[in-house]
Amino acid sequence: MSTEVDCMKRFTKTHWLREFGLRAIPVDQRRQYIVRYKGTDIGTFIPGLHVFDKIIVNTKVIPKIGPRGKGQMLNHLKTTGLKLGLIMNFYHSRMEYQRAIN
Q1: pLDDT at 11
Q2: Which residues partner with 34 through β-bridges?
């Protein structure tokens, strides 16, 4: 990932943290989940933004949300046990988004 894209991704995440805060929407960017494989803890996972204790929001800066991004979100939902995810892409002048349901 280029430095410019990485910087833009951090900016959009910071923007949404601020916006959610202004609207009194509960958001957590540091919630950790234990990842288990066949009964063994193999690491931790921290989703992009955890909103309303129900939704994972991933911010992206990519030309198009494709199967890889949707698959990644579905894996996030399975890991966390949550049902709803939102992928927000800020690559173009208009935000692109997709919902993912587990």
Answers
A1: 67
A2: 44
**Number of domains making up the chain:** 1
Under a CB-based contact definition with an 8 Å cutoff, are residues 81 and 34 in contact?
no
Strand partners, 97: 88
3-class secondary structure, 95: coil
Which pTM was predicted? Answer: 0.79
The β-bridge partners of 60 are 89
**pLDDT per position as a tens digit, 44-87:** 988 888 999 999 998 888 899 999 999 999 999 998 999 999 99
Between CA 51 and CA 85 the distance in angstroms is: 10
**Sign, Cα dihedral of 62, 96, 72, 50:** positive
CATH number of residue 15's parent domain:
3.90.320.10
